[in-house]
Design brief:
The protein contains ten helices and no strands. It is an all-alpha fold. Helix 7 packs across helix 9, helix 7 packs across helix 10 and helix 9 runs antiparallel to helix 10. It comes from Batillaria attramentaria. InterPro entries: Rab-GAP_TBC_sf, TBC1_cilium_biogenesis. Keywords: Coiled coil, Repeat, WD repeat. This is Rab-GAP TBC domain-containing protein.
Length: about 500
C-alpha cells in the first residue's frame, strides 16, 4: 500500500520535475537497491501526515499526489538507511547491479515483473470469458425464441385437433341418441312380453297356492290329532310323576328323621368321650390335691382347712354352673321337640302340591339348627375352657405360693436348727473353759452335760434329714405340676359339658 504506488510510478506522481531529476541522479549513481531505500525513506519523512490518516482512500490519495516532502531529506534518509542496514538484509545482495546496453541491438530482457504480465493475461482471459458468456446468453435467447415459435405452432395444431375432435364427438353423440331410441323401443316390446309372462306365472302360482293351502290344512288337522294324543300321554305321565314325587318326599322326610337320630347319637357319643376326659382329669387333679394335702397337713392345718373351704365353694359353683347348663340344654331340647312337633303337624296339614317345598324348608331349618347348636356348643366350650384355664392358673399360683411359703418355712427351720446347734457348741466351749478354773462340783455338772450332748446331736441330724426329704418332696411336686401344665397346653381338653340332644 505504501511501497508499490511509489515504485509503480517511479515517484513521478509525488515529486515535481526538478525533484524527480534530483532523485534519479542518486538512483542511477547507486546500486539498484537504493530505489527501495528511497521508498522507505519517503514514508519515514512523511510520517506525520501518514499518522493522521484513518481511511484507505486517504492513504491512496497520499501516495498518488504531490506532498510537501523535501526530496533532499528523503535522499539523506535513504543514505542513512543504506548504511544502517546489515549486509545480510541489504537488498543490494539480492539484486543485480546496473550494466550498460550492447551496441546495435537490445539485450535479452526477462527481468520484467511477472505479476504485471500475469495481470494482463488475466484481463484478457476475463474479457474472453465475458465474450463467451455473452455468446452463450445470446444462444439461449435464440433457443428460447425458436422454442416459443414451436410452441405457438403446436398450440395452433392442438386447437385445430380439438375442433376436429369436437365435431367427431357431436357426430358420435347423434349416433348414440339414435341407438338409444332404438333400445327404448325394444325395451317397450320386452316389457310387454314380460308382463304377459308374469300374468301367466301369477295364474300358476295362484293354483299352486290353493293346492298348498289344502295340503297345509290336512297337515294341521293331523298335527292337532297328534297333539291331542300327546296331551293325553303327558297328562298320564304327569300323574305318574306327581305320585313319584309324593313318594320321594315321604322318603326324604324319613331320611331327615334318620339323620336327626344319627346326629343325636353322635352328640351323645361326644358327651360320653368328654365325660371320660373330665373324669381322667379329675383323677389327676385328685391325686395332686391328695399330695398337696399330705404336705399341707405336715406344715399347717389351718391352711388345709381354708383350702378345703375354697375347693368346696368352687365345686359348688361348678355344680351350679353344670346344673344351669343341663337345665339350659333340657329347655333347648324341649323347645326343639315342640318345634319339631309343630312342623310335623303343619307338614301333615299342607297339600300335596306344597310337600316338596316344605321338605326343603324343613331340611334348611334342620341344617340351621344344627349349625346353631354347633355354634352354641363352641361358645360354651370356649367359655368353659377360659374359666378352666383361669381356675388352673389361680390354682397354680396358689400352689406356687404355698410351695414358696413351705420352702421359706423349711429354710427358716433349718436356719433356726443351725443357730441352736451353734449355740450348743458355744455353750460347751464356755462350760469347758470354766471347768478348768472352778471346783469339782462344776466338773460333775459338765459330765451331766456331756451325757446329754449325743442325744441332742442325733436329734439335730434326724431333723436335718427330714428337712432334706421334705425339700426333695417339694421339688417332686413342682416337677409334676410343670409336667401337667405342659400336657394340658399340648393337648386340647375335651368339652366340659355334654351338648345333649339338639
Amino acid at each position: 500500500m505504501y511501497a508499490w504506488p511509489l515504485l509503480e510510478t517511479v515517484f513521478s506522481e509525488v515529486l515535481t520535475r526538478e525533484e524527480w531529476l534530483i532523485l534519479w541522479d542518486h538512483v542511477i549513481s547507486n546500486p539498484p537497491g537504493f530505489l527501495l531505500m528511497l521508498t522507505a525513506a519517503y514514508s519515514i519523512c512523511a510520517r506525520g501526515p501518514l499518522m493522521q490518516c484513518r481511511e484507505m482512500d486517504d492513504f491512496q490519495y497520499f501516495f498518488h499526489h504531490r506532498n510537501a516532502v523535501d526530496v533532499r531529506q528523503v535522499v539523506k534518509e535513504a543514505y542513512r538507511l543504506s548504511e544502517a542496514t546489515p549486509d545480510e538484509l541489504h537488498p543490494n545482495n539480492k539484486l543485480m547491479p546496473f550494466s550498460p546496453l550492447t551496441h546495435g541491438q537490445y539485450p535479452v530482457f526477462n527481468k520484467y515483473p511477472k505479476f504485471i504480465v500475469d495481470y494482463q493475461i488475466q484481463e484478457r482471459e476475463r474479457i474472453r470469458q465475458e465474450e463467451m458468456e455473452y455468446l452463450r446468453k445470446r444462444q439461449l435467447s435464440l433457443d428460447a425464441q425458436r422454442m416459443t415459435l414451436r410452441r405457438q405452432q403446436e398450440e395452433e395444431q392442438w386447437y385445430h385437433q380439438q375442433a376436429l375432435l369436437l365435431e367427431a364427438e357431436e357426430k358420435r353423440r347423434q349416433m348414440i341418441s339414435q341407438e338409444e331410441q332404438k333400445l327404448a323401443d325394444q325395451r317397450q316390446r320386452l316389457t310387454a312380453m314380460h308382463r304377459e309372462v308374469k300374468l301367466k306365472e301369477l295364474q300358476l302360482l295362484d293354483a299352486a297356492r290353493r293346492k298348498f293351502l289344502h295340503f297345509q290344512k290336512q297337515q294341521r288337522e293331523a298335527e292337532l290329532r297328534r297333539l291331542d294324543d300327546e296331551m293325553q300321554r303327558k297328562a298320564l305321565l304327569r300323574d305318574q310323576e306327581t305320585q313319584a314325587a309324593i313318594e320321594e318326599a315321604e322318603i326324604r322326610n324319613l331320611e331327615l328323621q334318620l339323620q336327626k337320630k344319627m346326629f343325636e347319637q353322635e352328640l351323645q357319643r361326644e358327651f360320653a368321650v368328654s365325660s371320660l376326659g373330665l373324669r381322667s382329669e379329675e383323677d389327676v387333679e385328685r391325686k395332686q390335691s391328695e399330695l398337696e394335702q399330705r404336705i399341707q397337713r405336715r406344715l399347717q392345718d389351718a391352711e388345709r382347712e381354708r383350702e378345703l373351704e375354697v375347693r368346696k365353694m368352687m365345686q359348688q359353683q361348678l355344680a351350679g354352673a353344670t346344673q344351669r347348663n343341663v337345665d339350659m340344654w333340657a329347655g333347648k331340647e324341649m323347645e326343639h321337640r315342640f318345634r319339631m312337633d309343630h312342623l310335623e303337624r303343619e307338614a301333615r296339614q299342607v297339600q300335596l302340591a306344597k310337600l316338596s317345598t316344605q321338605n326343603r324348608a324343613l331340611e334348611q331349618e334342620v341344617h340351621d339348627l344344627m349349625h346353631r347348636c354347633e355354634e352354641d356348643k363352641d361358645h360354651e366350650t370356649e367359655a368353659g375352657l377360659r374359666e378352666l384355664a383361669l381356675d388352673k392358673e389361680e390354682r397354680g399360683q396358689d400352689s406356687v405360693r404355698r410351695l414358696a411359703t413351705m420352702e421359706s418355712e423349711v429354710l427358716t427351720g433349718r436356719q433356726h436348727t443351725h443357730n441352736l446347734a451353734s449355740r450348743g457348741v458355744d455353750d460347751r466351749k464356755h462350760v469347758g473353759w470354766n471347768a478348768s478354773l472352778h471346783d469339782s462340783n462344776t466338773m460333775a455338772s459338765l459330765d451331766d452335760h456331756g451325757d446329754e450332748l449325743p442325744s441332742r446331736v442325733k436329734f439335730e441330724r434326724d431333723r436335718r434329714m427330714f428337712d432334706e426329704q421334705e425339700m426333695e418332696l417339694l421339688k417332686e411336686v413342682r416337677r409334676l405340676r410343670q409336667k401337667l401344665a405342659t400336657d394340658n397346653r399340648n393337648k386340647r381338653p375335651p368339652p366340659l359339658s355334654a351338648a345333649g340332644d339338639c
